[in-house]
């Protein structure tokens, strides 16, 4: 197996492990009421969600074959992950607003801002990981 294929598998593995950790933490938080006991616990889960989304979409777009084999560039990766933020991060907050009517809760704006910033941090970490492994260190 060549080193590029190995890196692709590592990316997918990292993505799957991130999803598993996020799901376990989320279930643990729900069963232990951590979201209510520790008000900022959800920031960790949002970070992991953003990280998973960025890793998974990067693999899906560049390596899965569903979109051919587009050339990997920093610009394409940044656009892909920015679109992910708008499609998924903001959509989730709108979903929370509509379903749970969170606008009526005290601290709604601060909570939503923290959630979005955590999503951005996770996506940025995914961007840096992807760029470092597939663009900057391509000659290794």
- Summarize the biggest pleated sheet: none
How helical, in percent, are the residues? Answer: over 70%
Cα gyration radius (Å)? 17 Å
Give the termini distance in whole angstroms: 15 Å
Inertia-based shape? elongated
Counting structural domains, the number is 1
The number of helices is 5
Mean pLDDT: 89
Q: Would you report the number of β strands?
A: 0
- What percent of residues are in strands? under 5%
Spans where pLDDT lies below 50 across 5 or more residues: none
Structural class: mainly alpha
Order of helices and strands: HHHHH
Characterise this structure:
- This protein is an all-alpha fold and 140 residues long.
- It has one domain.
- Helix content is 80%, strand content 0%.
- Helix 4 (74-100) packs antiparallel against helix 5 (108-136).
- The longest helix is centred in the first third of the chain and has 30 residues, at 3-32.
- The radius of gyration is 17 Å and the shape is elongated.
- The mean pLDDT is 89.
- The chain crosses the membrane at residues 12-38, 44-67, 79-104, 116-135.
- This is VanZ-like domain-containing protein.
- It comes from Candidatus Campbellbacteria bacterium CG22_combo_CG10-13_8_21_14_all_43_18.
């Amino acid at each position: 197996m060549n080193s590029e294929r190995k890196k692709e598998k590592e990316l997918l593995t990292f993505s799957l492990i991130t999803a598993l950790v996020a799901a376990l933490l989320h279930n643990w938080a729900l069963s232990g009421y951590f979201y209510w006991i520790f008000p900022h616990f959800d920031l960790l889960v949002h970070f992991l969600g953003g990280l998973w989304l960025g890793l998974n979409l990067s693999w899906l777009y560049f390596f899965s074959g569903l979109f051919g084999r587009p050339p990997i560039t920093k610009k394409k990766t940044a656009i892909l992950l920015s679109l992910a933020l708008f499609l998924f991060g903001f959509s989730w907050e709108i979903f929370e607003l509509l379903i749970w009517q969170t606008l009526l809760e005290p601290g709604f704006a601060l909570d939503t801002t923290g959630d979005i910033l955590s999503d951005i941090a996770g996506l940025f970490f995914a961007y840096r990981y992807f760029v470092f492994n597939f663009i900057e260190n391509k000659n290794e």
